[in-house]
Write a structure and sequence with these properties.
heterodimer; A: seven-stranded mixed beta sheet; four-stranded antiparallel beta sheet; 54% strand; B: mainly beta; five-stranded antiparallel beta sheet; 11 strands
């Protein structure tokens, strides 16, 4: 198993501001993944973060809106920039291990007002 | 490319009744298939997975699923529902590199006492 710690667990933010979400893993991993789970919907992959290189973003997500840092093999941050109410979601950090299982943090529940 | 379809966004069963949550997948390569459960205000937890070998896989909490290649299905079942099974259930498929997981839209299970 893996222990993934995300913080903050929840936040209420004003529109136009930015929030940085932190993800700490208990062991070194090559790739870390960031997902968004909008209310009542499934998980959508935002980007894949590799240590030492720029994150790879999925269609519909851009670096200016969701900048990601990956300073080492156990840590990553996702920033939600210039927030609007449409950004209200749960944001989840994830890793895979052994190519056959994904582990998830508990998520960050973001509400933009 | 991989994709997952979960039939029924909401399923209600009586306590003690059979639970059946449906999942169909599309994959251009032999898939790895997963069921995850998400309890309120928590992250995702792996219930069970199929990679290779026996097509009937057993998971935690009495759940099992059967991989049927001819039907491209991976339905989740439990013989007798318990109140604690009330949660959101996600079916997922990954490529064999485990680099990316594709999630279904989820099924919310309600257990009626």
């Amino acid at each position: 198993s893996a222990v993934i710690s995300q913080k903050p667990s929840r936040d209420i933010c004003q529109r136009g501001t930015s929030l940085t979400i932190q993800c700490q893993v208990d062991s070194q991993v090559t790739m870390m993944f960031w997902y968004r789970q909008q209310p009542g919907q499934s998980l959508t992959l935002i980007a894949t973060a590799n240590q030492g290189s720029e994150a790879t973003y999925e269609s519909g997500f851009v670096i200016d809106k969701f900048p990601i840092s990956r300073p080492n093999l156990t840590f990553s941050t996702l920033t939600v920039s210039n927030m609007s109410p449409e950004d209200s979601s749960i944001y989840l950090c994830s890793i895979t291990r052994g190519y056959t299982e994904a582990f998830f943090g508990q998520g960050t529940r973001l509400t933009v007002v | 490319a991989q994709s997952v379809t979960q039939l029924g966004s909401h399923v209600s069963v009586s306590e003690g009744a059979l639970v059946l949550l449906r999942c169909n997948y599309s994959s251009s390569v032999p898939p790895y298939l997963f069921w995850y459960v998400q309890y309120p205000n928590q992250g995702l937890q792996l219930l069970l997975k199929y990679t290779t070998g026996a097509t009937l896989v057993k998971g935690i909490n009495g759940f099992e699923a059967e991989f049927k290649k001819s039907e491209t299905s991976f339905h989740l079942t439990k013989p007798s529902a318990h109140m604690s099974d009330a949660a959101e259930y996600f079916c997922a498929v990954s490529d064999q590199a485990g680099n990316q997981f594709y999630f279904g839209t989820g099924t919310s299970l309600t257990v009626i006492p």
